[in-house]
Design brief:
14 helices, alpha/beta, globular, D-Maltodextrin-Binding Protein, domain 2, 5-stranded antiparallel beta sheet
Length: 358
């Protein structure tokens, strides 16, 4: 689920997409049924894919990969909704897949072009966000937790409470997107991260208002530099990214809070009206192959939905890294998987988030 949003960022991204739209929409793209051509891939920043894979894909298929990144599900959604740019493959998280399906924004996939779909673990097929399995192919899975610098914090961190503790004032980072930020506040308060209760959401909002006074910053990918360098002490982020950060700072520690957390599945989809749908499906199929999935896992630190790749790669991990990448059933039982919320609740989130960020 990788997973990142601010109102300003979305606005800037939309503006950038509008500037690039003529280039994207006016490209001389080959017909889907011809050899070669191109595919436009829109994915999380992070990194969240091994870009060296593109060279091998281009050599094997003759299809050129045009790659760009977004910071959050919400940013990606805003770009697609605006109609300002065209992409062939997107990689949203579970709840956003459901929203895109409900709004008619995804193409049904032709699985005859995705034979490697058989390698996707059955536990990641036909999930609630795509119950009929028509629109998505699971990509990577993971969990959210707390990352802190053990050289700067002596305490034994176990709870989301640390993010609201004035003892760490000025050294705390927080997700710069509403779903994750509200999700953490709701979980800490003992509520579901999928709560539709206005009173519970407003209670979470008040908690976030209080937290704002002691925050260093709202961040997404900026968390890498801030935590690795010791500029900040603690913040929430994704397990896979922690494994990359650990390579640059072995003092960092990853903890799944006792209150529970978020578990996610990110999936590959084709937006409605994609100009290179067949090429998109060929790309998705390539990413599902075992060798490519292993190469990708090694580069980005997330668990592939390809069961062969996951099994093979798990054998190479030490116990600590394994526990981070592959959450136990016990851990997953304490986690919520985000679901698509009602329009009324989404509007409430948007209003409260806008007010919070003023």
């Amino acid at each position: 689920m990788k997973k990142r949003f601010t109102v300003l960022m979305v606005a800037l991204s939309i503006l950038l997409a509008l500037m690039l739209a003529p280039a994207l929409s006016g490209c001389d793209k080959k017909d889907d049924n011809s050899e070669g051509g191109e595919v436009y891939v829109y994915n999380w920043g992070g990194p969240y894919i091994e870009e060296d894979i593109f060279k091998d894909f281009e050599k094997e298929t003759g299809i050129k990969v045009n790659y760009s990144e977004y910071q959050s599900n919400e940013e990606m959604y805003a770009i697609l909704k605006s109609g300002s740019a065209f992409y062939d493959v997107i990689i949203p998280s579970d709840y956003m897949v459901a929203r895109l399906i409900s709004e008619g924004m995804l193409e049904e996939l032709d699985f005859s072009n995705i034979p490697n779909y058989e390698l996707i673990d059955s536990k990641y097929k036909n999930l609630n966000y795509d119950p009929n399995g028509k629109y998505s192919v699971a990509y990577m899975t993971g969990t959210v937790g707390l990352i802190y610098n053990s050289a700067l914090i002596d305490d034994d961190i176990t709870s989301w409470a640390s993010l609201f503790d004035s003892a760490y004032a000025g050294q705390i980072l927080m997700f710069d997107n509403p779903r994750d930020a509200f999700g953490i506040a709701l979980k800490y308060l003992g509520y579901s991260q999928n709560s539709e209760s206005e009173s519970e959401i407003r209670e979470a909002y008040e908690l976030l208002v209080g937290q704002k006074q002691i925050l260093q910053a709202y961040v997404m990918d900026q968390i890498f530099d801030k935590l690795e360098s010791g500029e900040a002490y603690i913040g929430p982020y994704y397990a896979g990214d922690y494994l990359l950060m650990l390579e640059n700072n072995p003092e960092l520690v990853f903890v799944r809070p006792i209150e529970g957390s978020n578990a996610f599945v990110d999936a590959m989809c084709v937006p409605k009206g994609a100009k290179n749908k067949t090429n998109a499906e060929i790309f998705i199929d390539y990413m599902c192959s075992t060798d490519v999935a292993i190469q990708n896992m090694d580069a980005i630190g997330y668990a592939s939905a390809n069961y062969e790749a996951a099994e093979e790669y798990a054998e190479e991990l030490d116990s600590e890294d394994y526990d981070v990448m592959f959450a136990s059933d016990e851990v997953l039982a304490s986690c919520d998987v985000f679901t698509n919320l009602s329009q009324e609740t989404l509007e409430l989130y948007n209003d409260l988030w806008t007010e919070l960020k003023r």
